[in-house]
Specification:
Blueprint lengths: L2 H17 L3 H23 L2 H21 L2 H12 L1 H8 L1 H13 L11 H28 L3 E5 L6 H4 L3 E6 L2 H7 L10 E5 L2 E7 L16 H12 L3 E5 L6 E5 L2 E6 L1 H12 L5 H14 L2
Parallel strand pairs: 1-3
Antiparallel strand pairs: 1-5, 2-4, 3-4, 5-6, 6-7
Length: about 290
C-alpha cells in the first residue's frame, strides 16, 4: 500500500467517525477531559502523587509476577487488585472527602446576585474589623511568645471540633483572644474556633496531621494540629509559636511560616472577605491597612 493510499484510508476512517459524531459525544469528551484535568490537578496539589507512584509500581510488579508464574506472590497481588476500589477509597479517603466537600461548597455564580449588595458590604465590614483584632492579638502574642491556635471556620461545619471545647459565643477582640491564650488561663492549650465573626468555642481539640513524614520535626503540636485540621476542612488556621513567636497560617494542608501581622491580614482578607464585591473588598483592605499603619 502506498503512502497516498494509507493517507486516503486514514482520512476515510476519520470521516466515518465524524459522520456518526453527535453533540452528546462532544459533551462526553468534554466531561471526561474535565474529570482527568481535575484528577491531575488534585494529584499535583496534594501528596497524592507519591501514592499514585506507589500504586503504579505495584501494578508493574504484579505484571512481572504474572509473567514469571510466581503463584504465591501472584495470589497476594490478585487479592489486592481484586479489591482495588476499596483500597483506593481507604488510601485516598482525605482527598476524596476534600473533593466531595468542595463540590458541596460550590455555588452557581448566577445565584450570587440573590444576596443584596448592602448585605455583602456589611459582612465584609464586620469581617474586616474582626481580622484587624486577630492581627493585633497575634502581633502582641508573637512579641511576648505566647502560643495560640485560632481556627476560622468557612463553609465546612466544625461542629465535632466545637463540641470538644468550651462554648464562648463572644465578639472577637484583641483583649478577648489575649485572655483566652494567656499561659495560665484554663483554655490556653486548646484551639479557639471562630464562626460567623464570633468566638464560638475555646479549648477545642483538633486532629493532628497524618502526613508525619512531610512535617518538619521542629514543629510542635499546635502546628501539626493546624495542618491536620486544614487537611480535613476549608478552615483557615492561625498559629503563634510559643518557642519562636513566629506567626504561621495553615490552609489546605500547607503551612506558611514566619509571616508578619501585615501578611497575616492579607491572607485573612483574601480567604474570608466575599469575592463577589471585588471593589468593596479592595476598599476595605486599604481601609484596614490605613488603620494599622
Amino acid at each position: 500500500m502506498t503512502i497516498l493510499q494509507t493517507l486516503q484510508s486514514a482520512f476515510s476512517n476519520i470521516g466515518a467517525v465524524f459522520a456518526d459524531f453527535r453533540f452528546n459525544d462532544f459533551l462526553d469528551i468534554c466531561f471526561v477531559a474535565f474529570l482527568i484535568y481535575n484528577v491531575i490537578k488534585l494529584i499535583r496539589e496534594t501528596r497524592t502523587g507519591q501514592l499514585v507512584k506507589g500504586l503504579v509500581l505495584l501494578g508493574v510488579v504484579y505484571f512481572l509476577v504474572t509473567i514469571l508464574g510466581m503463584q504465591a506472590t501472584g495470589y497476594l497481588f490478585s487479592a489486592l487488585f481484586r479489591d482495588v476500589i476499596l483500597v483506593l477509597i481507604v488510601v485516598f479517603q482525605p482527598e476524596i472527602r476534600h473533593i466531595i466537600e468542595a463540590v458541596g461548597r460550590s455555588k452557581i455564580k448566577g445565584l450570587s446576585g440573590i444576596h443584596a449588595r448592602n448585605a455583602q458590604i456589611r459582612y465584609n465590614e464586620e469581617t474586616t474589623v474582626m481580622i484587624g483584632e486577630i492581627c493585633k492579638a497575634c502581633a502582641e502574642m508573637s512579641d511576648r511568645k505566647i502560643g495560640a491556635l485560632i481556627v476560622l471556620e468557612k463553609e465546612t461545619p466544625l461542629n465535632e471540633v466545637i463540641e470538644t471545647g468550651t462554648p464562648v459565643d463572644a465578639k472577637i477582640s484583641e483583649e478577648l483572644l489575649g485572655n483566652v491564650f494567656y499561659p495560665k488561663a484554663p483554655l490556653h492549650d486548646g484551639a479557639a474556633v471562630i464562626r460567623e465573626n464570633r468566638l464560638c468555642a475555646a479549648g477545642c481539640i483538633l486532629p493532628l496531621t497524618q502526613h508525619h513524614g512531610a512535617v518538619s520535626s521542629a514543629l510542635g503540636t499546635r502546628h501539626r494540629a493546624a495542618i491536620g485540621m486544614s487537611e480535613q476542612s476549608d478552615a483557615v488556621m492561625v498559629v503563634v509559636s510559643e518557642e519562636t513567636g513566629y506567626i504561621s497560617v495553615a490552609k489546605d494542608g500547607r503551612l506558611r511560616r514566619n509571616i508578619s501581622d501585615g501578611e497575616l491580614r492579607e491572607v485573612l482578607c483574601d480567604e474570608l472577605l466575599l469575592k463577589e464585591t471585588e471593589e468593596t473588598t479592595s476598599a476595605l483592605k486599604n481601609l484596614l491597612g490605613r488603620k494599622h499603619k
